[in-house]
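Blackboard transcription, Thursday session:
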Amino acid sequence: MSKVAIFGYGTIGSGVVEVLEKKREYIKKQAGEEISVKYVLDLRDFPGDPIEKILVHDVQVILSDPEVDIVVEVMGGVHPAYEYVKSALLAGKSAVTSNKALVAACGPELLQIARERNLNFQFEASVGGGIPIIRPLYTSLTAGDASGIFGILNGTTNYMLTKMFDDEMSYEDALAQAQALGYAERDPSADVEGFDACRKIAILASVASGQFVDYQDIPTRGIVGITQEDMSLADLLGYGIKLIGRFSVAEGKPYAEVTPMLVPFDHALYPVKDVFNGILVDGDVNDAIMFYGSGAGKLPTAGAVVSDIIDITKNSGRTIQAGYSAEKLELADLSACKRAFYVRVAGAASSDDAARAFASSFGADSYTEIEDGTYAFITEPMTRAAADKLCADAPGSVNIIPVID
Amino acid sequence: MSKVAIFGYGTIGSGVVEVLEKKREYIKKQAGEEISVKYVLDLRDFPGDPIEKILVHDVQVILSDPEVDIVVEVMGGVHPAYEYVKSALLAGKSAVTSNKALVAACGPELLQIARERNLNFQFEASVGGGIPIIRPLYTSLTAGDASGIFGILNGTTNYMLTKMFDDEMSYEDALAQAQALGYAERDPSADVEGFDACRKIAILASVASGQFVDYQDIPTRGIVGITQEDMSLADLLGYGIKLIGRFSVAEGKPYAEVTPMLVPFDHALYPVKDVFNGILVDGDVNDAIMFYGSGAGKLPTAGAVVSDIIDITKNSGRTIQAGYSAEKLELADLSACKRAFYVRVAGAASSDDAARAFASSFGADSYTEIEDGTYAFITEPMTRAAADKLCADAPGSVNIIPVID
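(Written on the board underneath:)
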């Protein structure tokens, strides 16, 4: 019998209780022993809820109970999640979290404490909701290095971009609809500024490389500034636009970024629409593999948490994943890399000749126009600095977006 | 130091040697110890090849060497692969195979021998080449039952169907092109008759259900009989046609089949084209998740084999996966299930009224025609028996294909 304490009785926490209860027999078979919830920790009361009798408000009750084998942190935020999980590990309990902010900020320290004590700190649900991606990275794609990870990691922005592309919605209308459906917060900045995707790609990059990739080192640009005109122009050029979290290794140098990218129609990530996530992993041994599914949802995310609980229960007394070391991976400077860019010029009535000349200065043979003075083209491979320099001479306002490589 | 013997020095066998050699340091880090190849078994000689000095022709040399921890069976076929792997397990060695025929035919017995001796018998590469699917099924999607698996599991037929759909090729030309590119054998029946997909879905169904699903129980229909006209008609109706291996549980009853299916344009499996594989797993806890990638290839497949070797090395002395029991899962009769079918009628010049009346007898409001006398429609949900009975009155030759559900 393995006993679990759950920190936080919100959507995911109540989902974990529900899954462990409803699938009790099935999970017992998977784990080799019964898994039961001994405590739920929350500041709130839940009168009438069956968990009322195991609800505690004081984390010390859990930390000091030697019967608790595993704590499950699903509160969100870095504090006090960090203090609670660290205390639990120091008290000899393994920990599972769905909290990307916690893993991105404190993963190296928590993994190290777990390793030193033959415990486990697992976080499958922190990226991609119910899509298995963390565990496949360290148990299946183990024969070679991951040379590139390209992920649509944020369902909210993917939903908005899909509405803008497929239904020709404006950015503002797409955001309003995402908010109305509960996909986006009233303050949508964590999603639309790319902060959420940034933490997720930092976690994937850390697991894939085996070294800590600090999310604060990752150049991050969200979808603010992408217009419906960009969607129309990209479409005419043969591309969609997706918000991509990317980690790659080229000539031994590691790169990471979060940015909108133009994705050609025949690319595996192109059909990833609405709130779905898709994570493409390329390697020096494996070919490109995509993991695809809904990146959120109460039960699927809870299911990923429960899969970690089962894995830890099956492996009691031993650290099963290396996770990654606390040694920081120094990212190389992406701006020195040559790649193709989409350049959109708007707001200036240019002659055809002027537009053609401007596109030509980027090595583009042609350009695509949607209305007088708004046009776009794909550059030949160049550094971002070179593209920016050429754009200083633009006949109107410009938007530069890299093309996926 | 873990020592490995490889049975068979063909494409995958030489790939395994190559990966273990080229990625020696990386793999050592992943496995926690060095993994080296002590023997390669093959009937042939390979003069000048570096493996020459570890090549043996007699399996007994390997079976009687206590230094060999893991044997890797990549010869293909059931015999003598079965005898060699069984003997190795009985001699206290774990085993890895990429051989779907062996797993489908002898998996229950080999798994049982491994379990009884705290050894492992693993077969990640037997389905989907380098795509991780077996291990995610038993280590990640563990919180709930898999209620449905729909897989494009055979790259050769998917390539042919793609050529027929996208390039309007005839079946014969698509097959000839697949053969010219080395995707299809001179005798293509294992692919085009669905036998390969049948063994693969049997393995997935066994792992997902925890009980032995006998491939011989699975109704199997290949792509023979699919015409270019079917492709055009499906396209007009809003579908592609894919060869699907399917395992599902509905109202507690397990079903399995291999059959071409109509797949709507907005379905996750629709964009899986050319030689790619895609496996969709739906569950009572997880939402639908797709694993996508190239289902073959020397290094990716070898990489999947090596991931099994690493997993076994990390878990020396303990059986890490339940696999599935030798108890056979009795499949329910699919022909009693109601579902929608595509019905194509060809070769009889019918009046519009006659075609409309025929479609209407299946509950279809309308039909789609490509030339006089060749038309198709989608039925309302009905049993296959009911559809067959109605087709007895068809005004021409018919082709009936289920629509994916």
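Lecturer's comment: Chain B touches chain A through 47 residues (CB under 8 Å).
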